[in-house]
Amino acid sequence: MCRHLAYVGPPEPLGRILVEPPHSLYRQSWAPRRQRHGTVNADGFGVGWYADGDPVPARYRRAGPIWADQSLADLARVVRSRAVLAAVRDATLAGADAEAAAAPFAAGTWLFSHNGAVPGWPGSLSHLVAGLPATDVLSLEARNDSALVWALVLARLRGGDEEGQALADTVLEVAAAAPAARLNLLLSNGETITATAWGDTLWYLSEPGRRTVVASEPYDDDPRWQEVPDRTLLAASRTDVLLTPLKDPSDALASAPTPDSVRAAAPVPSKEPST
């Protein structure tokens, strides 16, 4: 459980995106308006951003609540960026690896966050680890469900999947293993934002050709905010936003033919007279 946000657009001070809006991510750490699970996001926070001329993002993460960090004000005031991904955390399990467990996670040009929880973790996902390279498992930043979900996404990205495909396939795989999982995933490469709405709230604000913000909930009362339907993949840039429905694995299972229905639908052999 957490609140997260991603931004792409003209360079802005971090504070203008994360702190100054009346219902900013900063305020959502103690007063979220639309959070369905948990009430206070005080178990760490993180900010990732991209500097001009450098495709690899920088990160600032801490284990405590964002409102208690005395250095964030200066950082947010002077650092400007064209792309940001940030999160405030409400831990599923307390005490998991301090700031290493706080989003955003990072690899290469990517920043990643998970808003949600995987019931039964780690047992519910233990069989999925077999499909990961051993080095990826040994390199997990933290011992929590979000870090493992990121490892599953990252393996697909490194295998050549496009970002939307990597998120969608990971969500469906994890949801099949843990049907009650909440899997709002957020991914940025500094130019685009890819996200899933799966079990919690997700909204976007788009000014085509200028900026796009994707967030767990609106940070102000601008009427242009649009809610993303549950079970949806979002792909966004500064110019447009594309929404694609995701099929719930349980729906596919429920609609699958049973052995009896298969037999009933099998063609009946013809009883032509023999010659």
Can you put this structure into words, describing what you see?
The chain has 275 residues and is of the alpha+beta class. It has a single domain (2-264), classed as Glutamine Phosphoribosylpyrophosphate, subunit 1, domain 1. Helices cover 23% and strands 28% of the residues. It has eight helices and 13 strands. It has helices spanning 14-18, 25-28, 72-78, 134-138, 145-158, 163-177, 249-255, 259-265; strands at residues 2-13, 45-49, 58-62, 80-89, 105-107, 110-117, 182-188, 193-197, 203-207, 211-215, 226-227, 232-236, 241-245. The strands form two sheets. It has a seven-stranded antiparallel beta sheet with strand order 3-2-4-1-10-9-11. A six-stranded antiparallel beta sheet has the order 5-6-7-8-12-13, covered by helices on one side. A hairpin with a 4-residue loop joins strand 12 (232-236) and strand 13. The longest helix is centred in the middle third of the chain and has 15 residues, at 163-177. The protein starts with a strand and ends in a 10-residue tail after the last helix. It catalyses: gamma-L-glutamyl-hercynylcysteine S-oxide + H2O = S-(hercyn-2-yl)-L-cysteine S-oxide + L-glutamate.
Task: Describe this protein with a few key phrases.
275 residues, alpha+beta, Glutamine Phosphoribosylpyrophosphate, subunit 1, domain 1, 7-stranded antiparallel sheet, 6-stranded antiparallel sheet, 8 helices, 23% helix, 28% strand, disordered C terminus, EgtC_Actinobacteria, glutamine amidotransferase
